[in-house]
Amino acid sequence: MPELAAYGPWAVIAGGSEGVGAEFATQLANDGFNLVLLARKPGPLEATAQICRDLGVEVRTLSVDLTSPSAVTDITEATSDLEVGLFIYNAGANSYGHPFSAGELSGFQGVIDLNITAMLELVHHYAQPMKERRRGGILLVGSLAGYVGASNEAIYAAVKAFGRIFAEGLWVELRDYDVDVLELVLGVTRTPAMERAGLDFTIPGMHVSEPADVAREGLAHLADGPIHVISGNEKIVEMRATAERAPLVIATDARLKKLTGR
């Protein structure tokens, strides 16, 4: 677990209401971090906040749509009086899973805004004071999707690939300032969002991670950047990085369609 003294008193978690985000919150609260939790749905957000308050830490919440034009301003104003030592961006979902040629550009723009635009603006805001203090941590939640394209995930896979390369660059930029940067690469994870989407977790041979384990492993490897792949998914990453691209893309696309029922 991150040590409070090594990072600072407050952690901001974008996407901190359910699943892996909620586990990040409760595990950090157990370690003494005060929290700012950001999420779109106020109900789960407040429920997670209360669990963390019961652990003895201070918690602020902000119900916000990260694709809203005012979102970043609202967030930075709500945390302007805090020393944020740890920033976790766990909000990058595939909010518009359509074949590119059949979808609307506005829908794909929402995926880009959530996974790239808002993430970059918030990282830029919190990284600068961390660099000046010479301490801090930034954890960006990535995905195996960022290693290969698929017919319903061309834009999502692309933004996740961007996130991984960005994390590598930021890691090498900030390492001499004692600011840890990590992209945590997730595979299939049994989150409420995935369950609501109807994913089939019973496909033989598929590794399924649990949110508590993912959060625990991610926090344990925060100082081991720039990239950490959640246990059980290493062979997939190795294969996707070295395989001939055309057969890999076709096979991955078929597997994703089976997983999602499309």
DSSP strand tally: 7
**What is the rounded distance between the termini?**
39 Å
In terms of DSSP E residues, the strand content is 15-25%
Rg computed from alpha carbons, rounded to a whole number of angstroms: 18 Å
Largest sheet: 7 strands, parallel
Helix/strand/pairing category: alpha/beta
In percent, how helical is the residue content? 40-55%
Question: What do you see in this structure?
Answer:
The structure is a single chain. The chain has 262 residues and is α/β, with parallel strands linked by helices. The chain is 48% helix and 16% strand. The chain has helices at residues 4-7, 19-30, 42-53, 71-78, 105-133, 154-174, 192-196, 211-220, 234-242, 245-260, and strands at 10-14, 34-39, 59-63, 84-89, 136-143, 179-186, 227-229. Strands 3-2-1-4-5-6-7 form a 7-stranded parallel β-sheet, with helices on both faces. Helix 2 packs parallel to helix 3 (42-53), helix 2 (19-30) packs across helix 8 and helix 5 runs parallel beside helix 6. The longest helix has 29 residues, at 105-133. It is globular and about 50 Å long.
